[in-house]
Amino acid sequence: QAQLVESGGGLVQAGGSLRLSCAASGPTFSMYYMGWFRQAPGKEREFVVVMCWRGDCTYTADSVKGRFTISRDNAKNTVYLQMNSLKPEDTAVYYCAGRNRFGQAMDFRRYDYWGQGTQVTVSA
């Protein structure tokens, strides 16, 4: 079973940047999508951005479009989330996730693997 480990969260002022990393280990060959979701206190987990692990597709939530960018390094089995122009409403625990099947890429309930989460706090 694949394992995902996030790093790179922290506290940043509004307008600042952070880069999150997610290192995957185990049978990642079966992964179809990898990406990021987030969960703020009292709210449901929500889709942020995902990409095809071996293809050329990317899906990005409207709330972060133009500010967040996902990328990958297949040789290192790592996916990254570059977050620029951060806003206080981006404050949440960010989770890396992987899905083994095609379709429903933006539905967090369809994902097979999850990291432990990393806290991102954006101060006003």
Task: Describe this structure as you would to a colleague.
This protein is an all-beta fold and 124 residues long. Helices cover 0% and strands 50% of the residues. It contains no helices and 11 strands. Strands 2, 4, 5, 6, 9, 10 and 11 form a 7-stranded mixed beta sheet that branches. It is globular, with a radius of gyration of 13 Å. The model has no long low-confidence stretch (mean pLDDT 94).
Number of helices: 0
Query: Which consecutive residue ranges, at least 5 long each, have pLDDT under 50?
Result: none
Beta-strand segment tally? 11
**Rg estimate, integer Å:** 13 Å
Oligomeric state of shown chains: single chain
Q: Please describe the biggest sheet, giving its number of strands, its sense, and whether it closes into a barrel.
A: 7 strands, mixed
Distance between the termini: 40 Å
Q: Please tell me what the overall shape is.
A: globular
Structural class: mainly beta
Describe the structure in brief:
This protein has no helices and eleven strands. The chain has strands at residues 3-7, 10-13, 18-25, 33-39, 46-52, 58-60, 68-73, 78-83, 92-99, 113-114, 118-123.
Task: Give me the secondary-structure topology.
Blueprint (H helix, E strand, L loop, with lengths): L2 E5 L2 E4 L4 E8 L7 E7 L6 E7 L5 E3 L7 E6 L4 E6 L8 E8 L13 E2 L3 E6 L1
Parallel strand pairs: 2-11
Antiparallel strand pairs: 1-3, 3-8, 4-5, 4-9, 5-6, 7-8, 9-10, 9-11
Quick tags:
globular, four-stranded antiparallel β-sheet
